Amino acid sequence: VHPAKWTYENIDYMKKELKRLGFSYDWDREVTTCSPEYYKWNQWIFLKMLEKGIAYRKSAIVNWCPHDMTVLANEQVIEGRCWRCDTPVVQKEIPSWFLRITDYAEVLLDDLEELKGKWPEAVLTMQRNWIGKSIGATIRFPIEDSTSVLEVFTTRPDTIFGVTFMALAPEHPLAIELAKGTDYEEEVEAFVNKYLSMSTRDRNIIDEKEGVFTGRYAINPLTNEKVPIWIANYILWGYGTGAIMAVPAHDERDHEFAKKYGIPIKPVIKPVEGEWDYEKEAFTEEGILINSNGFDGLTSEEAKEKITQELEKKGIGEKTINFRLRDWNISRQRYWGTPIPVIYCDDCGIVPVP
Question: I want to staple 338 with a disulfide (CB 3.0 to 4.6 A). Which of 12, 39, 50, 122 is the partner?
Answer without folding.
Answer: 39
